[in-house]
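The material for today's practical consists of a large collection of protein records. Backbone structure tokens are a discrete shorthand for how the chain folds in space. An example says more than a description, so a record of this kind follows:
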Amino acid sequence: MIPDTHEDPLALSVSSLSYSYGVGSETTLTFPEVQIARGQSCAVVGPSGCGKTTLLHLVAGLLTPQAGSIHVAGQRMDTRSQRDRDRLRGRLIGIVLQQLRLVASLSALDNLLLAQRLSGQPVDRAAATEQLVGLGLGQHLHRRPGALSQGEAQRVAIARALMGQPALLLADEPSSSLDDANAERVLRLLTEQAAEHGAALLVVTHDARIRGRLDQEIELTGAAA
């Protein structure tokens, strides 16, 4: 059984992490130490190919490192089975991807209810409705993603990521395809929502506009052979 971990003050701790692509690969990515407390935010920056998204996938338990450790809310992720990592991800981690991956055939509300079902949570229509209303989407509960503006769809994706009251919110390139005004809005929304829900925020990006905007900043330089 996985214990309740939502009281651990340190949302993310990464130590001595490395990852190699393919069997016998000469390309090994190494990552610096990362520690983020609940309510804090951190940007991981660097050029394309330096390992930003790989780090996000490692933290989320989608990949297994060759060395090092990953703890989310006090729970070690890297030594667990894939099934346990999936369960922990559903309970402890919310993810906002660059491609929002909203289900086009479902309404905004039903996208949140589906996320509850897939993570093994009880379906709570009232909580999902409250989440969307809180993000100014009360008039769009029953609209499908195709009928929403880009900003509205992004808010639905953020609401979906926060449904499980995660300890850690991950965002992959949330602003890189946006103009300055919308980039500012989404960054503010992510930081405000993470703080409101008591979650840590980890943003991976090559967008220079995010530099210096979050509590911590980690720069990746690339692979080591």
In short: The two ends are 39 Å apart (CA to CA). The domain at 10-219 is CATH 3.40.50.300 (Rossmann fold).
